[in-house]
Design brief:
heterotrimer; A alpha+beta (about 525); B alpha/beta (about 425); C alpha+beta (about 170); A: alpha+beta; seven-stranded mixed β-sheet; five-stranded mixed β-sheet; about 25% helix; C: alpha+beta; 8 helices; about 45% helix
Chain lengths: ~525, ~425, ~170
């Protein structure tokens, strides 16, 4: 492989080597040197208009914007010299003269770059003695609300709709200090990635209805995780209020090889099923057309009896929404009880597609871990997991009991088609987070945890092994697959899993199967790691 | 006194000829002979000739034209474009309009020669929208030039092809900035583009692009015809040749005059423009369009019309738009107009310009209308300085420089307003 | 049915215009002029029509139109008076011309007369400083104006005597 030419430069007296073609901003960023900015965004083209990222370069008469200045050999850069600080302060002052300064009622306060930069560089009283300019406020643009007065005209949002979604809803109208961002005739957005606009807005110009005025950001803690609502596995930051132990917001976490800085609106805003009334709260048994809430023990006892009586008559159908650790635990644990039949629950028509169908991020496979299932099935020697194999088993009449494990959220036709194939005399248990009309025929519903309530790993459509982190405790009496398997093994419900059970499982039984070597949970790259190629494992 | 003899004129030599805008008349005056000559030369030699002439861009920035042409890569695999900047909008400047209305074929000839020199086969004249009359004169001339074989395929029997399109702007000063012009021609808002990349490498539609002012291109045929050395014999060390100056304001004979670079400003005002109207006393002169800092009456005495002299006096030759201001008129009101202009015309991209132009305008207006304080003057200075050297294009500097210049050179007039809490010259509206 | 469509001859001119450019997007300004010529100003339906013709996002077309002062986003009167009030014109009496407008037509800048005949705008430098003050009426420059000439001009336009523009549009001197 041809190596990229390296260039040596000095930033703030620190020598560093970066690839030729890198910009001064990127070089500084890589070295952890902060340069203030509004318009620069690593996943958008350079606009160079906010004029905040000015740096002093030896030999250049004027300050240069670091975002558009390529490094050159021997370059000497200052990002904190008095000249730079004065210039940044001056730009900030100008940026603020028409800004409404309504931080107390602005939902961006606390994570506003204008506020942060003011605190860092400016901190002076306003010299501006005149009426500020006025622009549209509280414009309803569908999922977002626009306040054009707060806007700093960085054009990140305009570039996003032009370059990423290619839907071009946004533009900056007029010119000079009358410049106003907006959609054409204030039409609502048409793209499915609007939440990103609120993320990338450095100020309170675009805010998401789902989050605005719900919680001040300084009362939230962010946890790194991944989205499980499709096979893309966008990396996320999940915001939780620790005293309420409640989810408030999901944002994308930058991962250049999976989702850049973006995620779709479904992944971002569909988490409400976690708190929805349709959540299954306890095990429920269908008795003569009635739904009767039951303690876990009753389901365990009944199911355990069935398994003991005829383990070969049991089919375990694992949703590809389950984590790798759940899959391994489930297969190993239940095989120990003599169970032989395992299959997956997934939309077989779309599983394995490696490209998003919308050209951005969304995959048609709405489960997070089909790739993980496939990789593990190989090692665990699960062979007949396809719907066709299952159909044969049903036709042979050998199955008496089906446990569908690990369903989460709103499930689609891919589950109903599986349900429809099950003969009437087979007893079915559905382990799911939320009630679905597809579950009507099941004898038991037992509550599953959501992916915010469990830890583990999943493998996305690109073959990347990524970490899921529990951010809230299990809701109601929900149990994960580990707990169910342990319960069935023990035959009682006084189960207590060791702390960090999933994490330990990953280290001991999963990582080597996926990555070709044992990996410590903590050492698994937060941006995920690629599956080991076949044959290595 | 250095003064250009009418017989030595380069640009306006033929201006009095009746019907010069017609191709036949132009031909009868020796028109398109330079193009014929150019097409027989290797393009490199034309660039060398222009380099030798010392010709610098006449749009205001004064970049050496031959060097600009030399930057165009000839092996990029992309088409090369030549754009004629006819977006003359710097207040006080109206020379290009005259050239286009009176002698459009000479411009077309200059464009054809320059396109041949840089190996461009497609050229545009980007003319400001308000110049509707000039645009229609140009369009007619372009049609004639096509018919006569000076444009189109195999020009004058050579292997050189050139298409030329007249494109009208739609009312935006910033489109006179070369990358703003490119954006506008691409069908976008006329917002200047970041450099790098420079237009010579990646300009119009990402292709190598040369942008030259009307007067610059208009000069080229003469240089090709007479040689670079002959042109360089005019003018001063740094400022070669002759140049058009638009003179307006409080003078008896405003208009466009050609003068050799290095001539006396004072004499120019007296000789060409007929001196001050009504014998008024001169208060200030804006030497090179509204973005250039003013000269005081005292400075006007010693100023000469070249880049060196203007630089020494802290200002610029700019586009050659000379505005003469008499003693009896309120400077602050005129500065308010200048401030309003840049506020109105800022494209709005860069924070310092977008916000600063509006703030400067508000501050200057407050002084003119009796609401200014002494601190306002300090604020103007600080804000003006903060706007300089920190934006994509020079509009921010162009807005700040003249205002700072007036405030620094005529502080008393501002202070009088502030102390009297009104305009001492009286407000008319 | 939408009636926003170029006339047959303008459809031809549209094709000729687009053919001059490397990409249809470059033809946006001339096509907007063409549309303005037909409809008088660029309403939403016109902007949408042009966007469709050129295959451009309508937000792009509308924001571009909003940038340029000669592209009308609102209807103007039959005579669009564009009065330059930059430095040289101010020095030589543009404020007096403004007063004439007020007296003769009752117009302040950015207003249109009730009969739809006149719209007044203050504009930036028109490149006519040597013949200041200047008022552009639609596409024509009327130069070297003074209050009495301007009053005469407005009075004759009021009674529909357009020849006055031609009479007052003098050749520029050098």
């Amino acid at each position: 492989m041809e190596s990229v030419k390296q260039v040596e430069l000095t930033i703030n007296d620190r020598k560093m080597k970066v690839a030729a073609g890198t910009t001064v901003f990127q070089a500084a960023d890589k070295a952890g040197i902060f340069i203030p900015h509004f318009c620069y965004h690593p996943d958008l083209t350079i606009a160079g208009c906010c004029r905040m990222c000015l740096v002093e370069i030896k030999g250049m008469p004027k300050l240069a914007i670091s975002c558009n200045t390529p490094v050159s050999e021997g370059m000497v850069v200052q990002t904190e010299s008095p000249k730079v600080k004065d210039a940044v302060k001056a730009v900030l002052e100008l940026q603020l003269i028409n800004h409404p300064l309504d931080c107390p009622i602005c939902d961006k306060a606390g994570e506003c770059r204008l506020q942060d930069n003011y605190a860092r560089y400016d901190l002076q009283a306003s010299r501006m003695q005149y009426e500020k300019g006025h622009k549209p406020k509280v414009m309803d643009l569908g999922p977002l609300v626009l306040d054009a007065e707060r806007c700093v005209l960085c054009a990140r949002c305009v570039r996003f709709t032009a370059e990423v979604t290619k839907t071009n809803e946004l533009a900056i109208y007029n010119r000079g200090d009358r410049s106003t961002v907006g959609t054409y005739n204030n039409q609502p957005f048409t793209n499915h990635y609007t939440g990103n606009l609120a993320d990338m807005c450095p100020v309170g110009g675009l805010t998401a209805k789902d989050f605005r005025f719900q919680m001040r950001v300084w009362f939230l803690q962010k946890v790194q995780s991944v989205c499980t609502l499709c096979a893309r596995g966008c990396n996320t930051l999940v915001s939780v209020n620790q005293s309420r132990m409640q989810l408030y917001r999901i944002e994308p976490r930058r991962n250049p090889s999976v989702n850049k800085s973006w995620m779709c609106d479904t992944g971002r805003w569909d988490y409400h099923y976690v708190y929805d009334n349709s959540r299954i709260k306890t095990p429920v048994r269908h008795e003569d057309g009635r739904l009767v809430e039951k303690p876990w023990l009753e389901w365990l006892t009944e199911t355990k009896e069935g398994v003991n009586r005829d383990p070969k008559g049991v089919l375990i159908a694992i949703s590809t929404q389950a984590t790798n650790e759940e899959i391994v635990d489930c297969v190993q644990g239940l095989r120990a009880l003599g169970v032989e039949n395992f299959c997956w629950i997934v939309d077989e028509a779309v599983v394995g597609e490696t490209q998003p169908y919308d050209g951005v991020l969304r995959h048609r496979d709405l489960t997070a871990n089909a790739s993980g299932f496939l990789k593990l099935a190989l090692g665990l020697q699960i062979e007949r997991y396809h719907y066709a194999d299952v159909k044969k088993l049903f036709e042979q009449g050998r199955l008496k009991q089906v446990l569908i494990l690990g369903l989460e959220g709103k499930v689609g036709a891919w589950v109903s088609s599986f349900m429809a194939a099950i003969p009437r005399d087979v007893e079915v248990t559905v382990h799911a987070t939320n009630v679905s009309p597809y579950f009507e025929s099941a004898r038991w519903w037992i509550p599953n945890v959501s992916s915010f309530e469990k830890s583990g790993t999943v493998v996305n459509a690109l073959g990347r092994v990524q970490k899921l982190q529990a951010v809230i405790p299990p809701q109601h009496t929900a149990r994960n697959i580990h707990e169910i398997v342990l319960g069935l093994a023990q035959g009682h419900d006084r189960i207590s899993l060791p702390k960090a059970h999933a994490e330990n499982l990953f280290e001991a039984h999963v990582s080597a199967r996926l990555l070709g070597r044992p990996v410590n949970w903590r050492e698994l790259d937060p941006l995920g790691e690629n599956l080991a190629s076949e044959g290595v494992a | 006194m250095k003064r250009l003899d009418p017989s030595r004129r380069i640009l306006l030599a033929d201006m009095e000829t009746k019907g010069l805008a017609d191709c036949k008349v132009f031909e009868s005056r020796g028109g398109y002979q330079a193009l014929k000559k150019a097409l027989s030369m290797p393009p490199k030699d034309i660039i060398e000739t222009v380099k030798k002439s010392g010709l610098r861009g006449r749009g205001g920035a004064g970049f050496p034209t031959g060097n600009k042409w030399g930057f165009v890569p000839q092996n990029s695999g992309k088409p090369i474009f030549l754009l004629c900047n006819a977006d003359e909008s710097e207040p006080g400047t109206f020379k290009d309009r005259l050239l286009m209305e009176k002698n459009p074929h000479r411009l077309i000839e200059g464009i054809a020669i320059s396109s041949f020199a840089v190996n461009s086969h497609k050229a545009y004249i980007y003319i400001r929208g308000e110049y509707a009359k000039a645009a229609s004169i140009l369009e007619r001339a372009v049609e004639q030039a096509y018919s006569a074989g000076y444009l189109g395929k195999r020009i004058l029997g050579s292997s050189f092809d050139l298409e030329l399109v007249v494109h009208r702007g739609a009312g935006a000063y910033i489109c006179g900035e070369e990358t703003g012009l490119i954006s506008s021609l691409e069908g976008k808002k006329g917002q200047p583009k970041l450099k790098p990349p420079f237009p010579a490498v990646s300009g119009f539609l990402g292709c190598p692009t040369v942008v030259n002012n009307v007067e610059t291109l208009f000069t080229v045929p003469w240089i090709v015809e007479h040689g670079g050395e002959k042109y360089a014999a005019y003018g001063t060390e740094q400022s070669k040749g002759t140049k058009l100056f638009s003179i307006s304001g409080w003078v008896n004979k405003p208009g466009v005059y050609e003068e050799e670079l290095g001539a006396s400003l004072k004499d120019f005002i007296e000789y060409y423009a007929g001196g001050m109207k009504g014998g008024a006393k001169l208060k200030a002169v804006i030497p090179g369009g509204s973005s250039t800092p003013p000269l005081t009456a005292e400075e006007v005495e010693k100023a000469t019309l070249d880049m060196e002299s203007m630089a020494k006096l802290g200002t610029f030759l700019g586009s050659g738009g000379i505005i003469v201001i008499p003693d009896q008129l309120c400077l602050v009101k005129l500065v308010e107009r200048i401030a309003e202009f840049y506020w109105d015309e800022s494209c709005g991209q860069c924070t310092p310009c977008r916000e600063g132009t509006g703030w400067l305008y508000k501050m200057v207006a407050s002084i003119e209308h009796g609401n200014g304080k002494e601190v306002t003057l300090e604020d103007i200075k600080k804000t003006g300085r903060n706007m300089m050297g920190v934006t994509i294009c020079p509009l921010s500097d162009a807005a700040a420089m003249p205002i700072l210049g007036f405030v620094q050179k005529f502080p008393d007039e501002f202070l009088e307003h502030i102390r009297a809490k009104r305009c001492p010259y009286g407000e008319t509206h | 049915m939408s009636s926003t469509e170029f006339t047959a001859d303008r459809k031809e001119r549209f094709k000729t215009i687009v053919a001059k450019y490397e990409q249809p997007s470059c033809a946006l300004l001339p096509v907007l002029y063409l549309a303005q010529e037909q409809w008088g100003y660029l309403s939403s339906s016109v902007l949408e029509y042009v966007a469709g013709l050129l295959g451009l996002p309508v937000a792009h077309v509308a924001s571009t139109a909003s940038f340029y002062v000669m592209l009308k986003k609102k209807p103007t009167g039959k005579y669009w008076l564009q009065l330059c009030n930059n430095v040289s014109c101010t020095m030589l009496g543009s404020e007096e011309l403004l007063a004439v407008c007020k007296e003769e037509l009752g117009l302040e800048p950015n207003q249109t007369t009730g009969d739809g005949l006149f719209t007044l705008s203050c504009v930036q430098c028109l490149g006519s400083c040597g013949t200041a003050p200047v008022v552009q009426i639609n596409d024509d420059y009327v130069e070297n104006l003074n209050p009495s000439l301007f009053r005469k001009l407005l009075q004759r336009l009021k009674v529909g005597d357009e020849s006055v523009i031609g009479e007052m549009t003098k050749e520029m001197h050098s």
